[in-house]
Amino acid sequence: MALISGQSVNGRVRSQVSFSKDFSEAAGIAAYCRSLGDLYWVYTPARFKKDCKNIKTYTDGYVKSALRCIVKNQETSEDSSEQFVFIKELQDELSAC
Q1: What is the separation of C-alpha 22 from the centre of its chain, rounded to a whole number of angstroms?
Q2: Which of 16, 22, 30, 56 could form a disulfide bond with 51, CB atoms 3.0-4.6 angstroms apart?
Q3: Which residues have C-beta within 8 Å of that of residue 43, sequence separation ≥ 6?
């Protein structure tokens, strides 16, 4: 996450462990669904939705913080392009849609 947001995650070790667990479970379920082909929709366990919600909640804080920092740096003419490459590119891509 530090590469995405430009922030350290050291203060959120417990959250990071939960994120890692949720991400691993969701990835496993997604892989299984992929193996079902066109019938992927048949298997949607409740924990998959819970895991995805937890992943979104965890990452949203970092993304919002990074976007605030990008805006602040643009206002002060500071260059944050190297620190927030992923977030900036994602923002630019979504703005173009």
Answers
A1: 12
A2: 22
A3: 29, 32, 33, 36
Q: Which residues of 51-61 are buried (b: 16+ CB within 10 A; e: fewer)?
A: bbebbeebeee
Number of folded domains in the chain?
Answer: 1
75 lies in which domain range?
Answer: 2-96
What is the residue whose two structure tokens read 């590469």?
A: 3
Is residue 11 very low, low, confident or very high in pLDDT (cuts 50, 70, 90)?
low
What predicted TM-score, i.e. pTM, was given to this entire model? 0.61
First to last CA, the chain: 25
What's the gap between Cα 95 and its chain centre?
18
State the Cα–Cα distance between residues 38 and 36, nearest whole angstrom.
Answer: 6
Chain position carrying tokens 């203060």: 11
Identify whether the C-beta of residue 84 lies closer than 8 Å to the C-beta of residue 7: no
